[in-house]
């Protein structure tokens, strides 16, 4: 496949965004809300009016039910990967896709999130055990 210039990449991405949105049967406004971006930003991305900013990729991919990295793949001549039934961990994706965070910091933040989740699960389990015992006694 020949290397596309920036305008060609933008046009290809715009077309794929529009086609996928229509496949999913959602309005541009609903897709923008799901992506967490302004309606005008969505419209510009779908029309190819300007380059889609990398910090918007994760939200657009989520709205289109594409796996993370799909937009980068499109921009380099590849194809998007459907997310299938596997839910996207939005909290981790927020960290993974932030271009301002160095990789070592991303790893530390993700480790912190996982530790917090483990503590929350343990506390929730203990709380459920207490509630069960309370109901058994009543």
Q: Could you walk me through the main structural features you see in this protein, from its secondary elements to its overall organization?
A:
This protein has seven helices and no strands. It is mainly alpha-helical and about 140 residues long. The radius of gyration is 20 Å and the shape is elongated. It starts with 5 loop residues before the first helix and ends with a helix. The model has no long low-confidence stretch (mean pLDDT about 90).
Briefly characterize the structure.
The chain is mainly α. The chain is 66% helix and 0% strand. The model has no long low-confidence stretch (mean pLDDT 90).
Main attributes of the structure:
138 residues, mainly alpha, 7 helices, 66% helix
Tell me the radius of gyration. Answer: 20 Å
The major sheet is characterized as: none
* H/E element order: HHHHHHH
Mean pLDDT: 90
Look at the helices and sheets and give the structural class.
mainly alpha
- Summarize the amount of helix as a percent range: 55-70%
Shape: elongated
Q: Bin the strand percentage.
A: under 5%
Query: First CA to last CA: what distance?
Result: 71 Å
Count of distinct strands: 0
Low-confidence stretches are none
Q: Supply the number of helical segments.
A: 7
